[in-house]
Design goal:
802 residues, alpha+beta, six-stranded mixed beta barrel, 25 helices, 51% helix, globular
Length: 802
């Protein structure tokens, strides 16, 4: 009880003392709020994307099964492989498979492209997830012979207004499916931040079994749970044995493949690629800079209170008592800073969706929130801050030389010099940390700029890109698109117009792959698309050899194909491929003649490596859902509404799923680089502000402490410029020392960012030089005010200064 009473008295005394120093309190709270607010916001970002547990039963008990091929890296399994592991492995209480698909939901007056999952029938039961309304499917539904689906809670609310009668209704979802239930609120599947609209059991999606028995397409994410009492080591041995048997049984598909089993923690670490740790490390630099500011302020305050502390010690106060009182002040400052930091974090977290989620993206859902985990993290950060950066100044302030401090003699002056040296060291540390922070920010910003200006293989005109769904297939679909092209080309403002099965960078640009048989080689799966004859001209893709498609490449003409430069080099390294033939294994031996070679163009990602790719003429394919791509003479999005009207005029049953532009597609593909540059750049700006405040505070204190000396120099004939030069030299010495340490630290730290940097050397000299120059400019600005004050010191006033 006495201890609590003593603590309460210390806190009340600290509050009264701080109330008399409102300026000091405001600056200290501001610095801490910036550091703690930035840390809490970054924790919310990392937690939402990577570390928050899945909303399933015992998420830590899940294990993840991947396959590793001879080409390296880990990847998904084919469904047939999944069935083999599930049948042969006795270490698991269950294994499930899930794969992203995008069926189209068609209803009365609406057509929605969906983000859905085709899953094994035990998906919900193994995860331990029930239904909000209705029921989920189970293993018994595999033999029921019905086409069923479970709808997401979000789609249920968004499209059907939460109407419970949707359960039992049959919907057209690239086929007709009966909705048997609605998933619980907050459940989005096995990915934290990607929405799902439907879950469809594989037996309903593929009643013929063709996909279930296929081994040539690995697209299944597989996870499961171990049986009680089974160790990971035993399960891994069993997985390795099964992989060996599959390799012997199916050498064409499983040659060189092995199974890799990981715990939830191991899978999380591999999936994160260290990025969350880097982000938290970067924001920790901001907190360290803020804490250095706080320590600097506390040291300055201790110097101004040296006489008071000396008197209290002389009157019998114990050193421990003084330390407790000084720590009480630090605790109050930290409490106020934490409160202000949480308010700042609340505001920043509300802004995160606009910064993080790509524009016009309706399936990425990041749940940024201030929950108990964030509050616990913030509290832990605050406790560490108050003890690490509050205790040292308190201990230093509590051991002055009593006699000289009270007299203000040489020992007191020596103590002041010691505190100034400590504060100078803290400023040097701030500058060094800021240099590391800003160098990382600069490299990420340069990566984004580089990616924005990267040659994509096609002219980056502001093209209109519309995803148009035909209500028909085959010849009727071709007739529909031909009629639509004629009407689109006649629209005011519309220029060159073409069709493509996949638009570049559309998110499904390389989703189609077909097995190609080339004479003398093992058949390989190569990505492809189908295009209209003027596609290359519309996008500006260069023809390197042969000819492009023309209007004569129709269904009953010579079967032809165009290939890209990488495919030509891969399969015909020392020969001209034009005139050679290839066979697509699903076309019953039909030979296609290569009529041209075109330049490589980005397909899925702006930063992807070139890969083999081929193009088929639209008229010689069976596809019935295409993108309309057009060069326009006005803002492309202004033509969206007229284009929808033209589609309806051709056929009222046709739908336009999405209208966007090529610039928006490019920008959406760069959103990871943009987010990294924005977030780390903002942290760099905060660090810059804090470093400038620390430097300004130190130089101001230094000028104040040397007022008498500067006055004497001025009285003896020194010019104002001499006083300014003296102050600038003091500042420059600190900044150059910190910059040297910071550059050295950056050389060791920047390689950690290599997974986030593309097209820029991690030791890019231009970035390093720019950061040093910026720091010098900031130092000059932060020093100018106190330096100018030094030039205006009146000798007569200074000589009376104490």
């Amino acid at each position: 009880m006495d201890m609590l009473s003593s603590v309460w008295r210390d806190l009340r005394f600290a509050a009264r003392t701080l109330a008399k120093s409102r300026g000091f309190l405001a600056v200290a709270v501001f610095c801490l709020a910036l550091g703690i607010g930035a840390n809490s916001t970054m924790f919310s970002l990392v937690d939402a994307i990577w570390t928050r547990p899945l909303p399933v039963r015992d998420p830590a008990g899940l294990v993840y099964l991947n396959t590793s091929t001879s080409r390296g890296g880990l990847g998904p399994l084919s469904y047939a492989e999944f069935l083999d592991y599930r049948k042969q492995a006795g270490s698991f209480s269950g294994l499930l498979a899930t794969e992203r698909r995008g069926p189209v939901l068609i209803g009365e007056g609406y057509t929605d492209a969906t983000m859905s999952n085709v899953v094994s029938e035990n998906y919900f039961t193994l995860l331990g997830v029930g239904a909000q309304v209705g029921r989920v499917f189970t293993d018994t539904d595999a033999t029921a012979g019905r086409r069923i689906a479970v709808m997401s809670y979000n789609l249920w609310q968004r499209r059907f207004g939460g109407d419970p009668s949707v359960v039992g209704r049959t919907l057209r979802l690239s086929g007709w499916y009966q909705v048997i239930g609605v998933a619980p609120k907050g459940f989005r599947g096995t990915e934290l931040w990607v929405d799902s609209d439907f879950w469809i059991p594989m037996s309903s999606w593929d009643p013929s079994g063709s996909e279930q028995n296929s081994r040539d397409s690995r697209s299944q994410d597989v996870m499961g749970r171990l049986r009680a009492g089974v160790s990971m080591e035993h399960a891994r041995s069993e997985v390795a044995a099964i992989a060996g048997r599959l390799e012997q049984a199916y050498p064409k598909y499983n040659g060189g493949c092995r199974g890799v089993l990981m715990t939830a923690g191991e899978y999380l670490n591999r999936r994160m690629h260290g990025v969350p740790y880097l982000l938290l490390g970067i924001v920790a630099l901001v907190l360290l800079i803020a804490c250095a500011d706080l320590a600097n302020l506390l040291l300055a305050r201790a110097g101004s209170r040296a006489h008071e502390i000396g008197v209290r010690l002389a009157m019998g106060a114990s050193r421990g008592r003084l330390v407790r009182q000084l720590m009480a002040e630090s605790v109050l400052i930290c409490a106020l800073g934490t409160g202000a930091g949480l308010l700042l974090a609340y505001w920043l977290i509300s802004l995160l969706p606009a910064v993080i989620i790509p524009a016009a993206n309706n399936y990425i859902h990041l749940d940024f929130r201030m929950d108990h985990r964030l509050l616990a993290f913030t509290l832990a950060t605050s406790v560490v801050t108050v003890f690490v950066f509050g205790l040292a100044p308190a201990l230093r302030a509590s051991r002055p030389d009593l006699i000289e401090t009270i007299k203000g003699g040489s020992a007191a002056e020596s103590g002041r010099r010691s505190r100034v040296h400590a504060r100078s060291a803290l400023v040097v540390v701030q500058v060094a940390l800021f240099m590391i922070l800003l160098t990382g920010s600069g490299l990420l910003i340069r990566t984004f700029i580089y990616s924005m200006n990267l040659d994509l293989g096609f002219e980056r005109r502001d093209l209109l890109v519309a995803d148009v769904l035909s209500p028909y297939g085959g010849a009727r679909a071709h007739a529909f698109y031909r009629q639509l092209l004629e009407r689109a080309r006649a629209m005011p403002g519309m220029g060159e117009t073409t069709l493509a099965l996949r638009a570049p960078l559309s998110g499904s640009g390389g989703g189609l792959a077909r097995e190609v048989d080339i004479a003398g080689r093992t058949a390989e799966r190569v990505k492809c698309t189908a295009i209209d004859w003027n596609y290359f001209r519309t996008l500006g893709i260069r023809l390197l050899g042969g000819r492009g498609f023309d209007a004569h490449d129709v269904a009953d003409s010579l079967p032809v194909v165009e290939i890209n430069e990488t495919m030509a080099r891969r399969f015909w390294p020392n020969d001209n491929p034009v005139g050679k033939t290839i066979r697509l294994t699903d076309e019953q031996g039909l030979e296609r003649t290569i009529v041209g070679v075109v330049a490589d163009a980005r397909v899925n990602s702006v930063v992807e490596e070139p890969a083999p790719y081929f193009y088929l003429p639209f008229e010689q394919t069976r596809y019935g859902q295409l993108y309309l791509i057009a060069a326009t003479r006005t803002d492309p999005l202004r033509l969206a509404k007229p284009l929808r009207a033209e589609v309806a005029a051709v056929d009222k049953q046709a739908s336009v799923l999405e209208v966007t532009t090529m610039k928006m597609l490019v920008r959406s593909q760069l959103y990871e680089q943009q987010v990294a540059a924005t977030v780390v750049g903002a942290l760099g700006a905060i660090g810059l502000l804090l470093a400038a405040m620390g430097l300004y505070g130190l130089i101001s204190h230094w000028v104040t402490r040397r007022t008498r000396e500067i006055g004497i120099r001025m009285a003896l004939g020194a010019r104002p410029s001499n006083a300014m030069a003296m102050v600038l030299r003091q500042s420059l010495a600190l900044v150059l020392t910190g910059a040297a340490i910071g550059v050295t630290g950056s050389i060791f730290a920047m390689p950690l960012l290599k997974t986030m940097i593309y097209g820029v050397n991690v030791f890019d000299p231009a970035t390093f030089i720019a950061v040093v120059v910026l720091m010098l400019l900031v130092a000059a600005v932060a020093t100018f005010v106190p330096a100018r004050r030094a030039t205006r010191i009146e000798p007569t006033v200074a000589l009376r200064y104490e």
